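Subject: for your reference before the review

Hello V.,

The reviewers asked for a structural picture of the protein, and I figured it would be easier to keep everything in one thread rather than splitting it across files. Below is the amino acid sequence we used in the manuscript, unchanged from the supplementary table.
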Amino acid sequence: MRAFILLPLLLSGATLLAAATQPSSAPDHSTAAGWVKYRRNPVLGGNLGTCFDVSVLHEDGRYWMWFSWRPKRSIGLVESPDGFHWGKPTIVLAPNPSSGWEEDINRPAVLKVGGRYRMWYTGQAHGHSWIGYATSADGRTWSRVSKRPVLSPEQPWEKVAVMCPDVLYDRTTSRYKMWYSGGEQYEPNAIGYATSSDGLHWTRGRRNPVFEPEPKHAWEKDRVTACHLIRRGGWYIMFYIGFHEQQHAQIGAARSRDGVTGWQRHPANPIVRPSARAWDADAVYKPFALFDGRRWLLWYNGRRDSVEQIGVALHEGRDLGF
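And here is what came back from the structure prediction:
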């Protein structure tokens, strides 16, 4: 790990902040393809208890993170000036047991379209999962659009759960595109695809699931899930979780021209892996990536024993090495 020597009166506050937000430069087998874990991980968790599966927006010089807050069974919101140092959390969407499908609320995906924030989230009850939809004028106060889920497990491969929505808005077609996970309640099995003109009524793609485990790759042979997609340079870039068995997960990347077919996995997969004897020693889950104009920031939740916390990995430059 790089040693930063603090020289009073010589280092400005800006220099100190820059030093604090640098990743570790030590060789580390827990990352690949140019990714490096932030030296002060985790960035969210601790006395908050388990925090997992996040969605992040960068607006007006600030980062907003909506995260799954397990002790509260709710979705929380935190804000940050840099993506590393987060403020006090507030609950923005709480359980609604009376609905019959929202005893626990988690796994948000947030977009801002048409001047409104739009959130798709997972509701869980009685060993099943569904996907719901809410909107907000300010990102803090949310209203459910429907009392019923907008997506329910219906196809055989979806078994008892659809969850982990990730949504992009295609301005050329004025349609929302959703990638979601389906299958078992405790870690779903594959990734499906659906589209919508209004964010409320969804039509599944003709070919589902669109992304499945690759038996030839030991690290993801059991199941793939909880993806995040970015549209860049004529490609849909997918960050996803791969499992070699149900308790151990790593993060990979793939790309496709249409987001549905012809997926090319990154040659260096998995790109983020657990670190031995660290806070993320047992598994790394649910990636969410943003490019800030200079580098990529990828937030993920890491697990050690039964506790999950949020960390960051960084990648300098635009080129991800496909």
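For the response letter, the relevant points are probably these. The chain has one helix and 20 strands. The chain has one domain: 29-316.

Happy to draft the paragraph if you're swamped.

O.
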